[in-house]
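Revision sheet: structure tokens.
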Amino acid sequence: MFSIGQLSRRTGVKVPTIRYYEDRGLLPQPERSSGNQRRYDEHTLKLLKFIRHTRQLGLPLEDVSELISLQEQSGPVLSKAHEIALRQRDLLRERIEELQKLEAELERISNACTHPHLEAEHAGECAVLNGFSDHGSCEHAHRSYPVGRNLPRTTG
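Predicted:
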């Protein structure tokens, strides 16, 4: 049996997320110790690893829940798991295409800068800032992405 902290360390899933998955019904309610601490078994550990992997692959919780329910099934109903995987693959391909368009726009914007702002007569001009200001000059249609969904910053 594992405590919630041990379960968290073994799976890399944060404690509040484990509790959230319990509340959503993705994980069974844990047994409790005499001190009312949550106690998890090996089955829950494996299930949480499964959930974590599906989430890393970008599946929404609704699909994860359906996949969990399919684990107890057999026969033709299991084709639903295949459908979920194909749908997620197709969504990922669309996302990759969108990201490639964004990459091209950022490449175009960054290449527009020849650093004339380093010269005194062009000190107030910046092609990059102008590029970010003018969505109409984009060569590819692209959608907006929510704030906070940034790529990790590199150091160096």
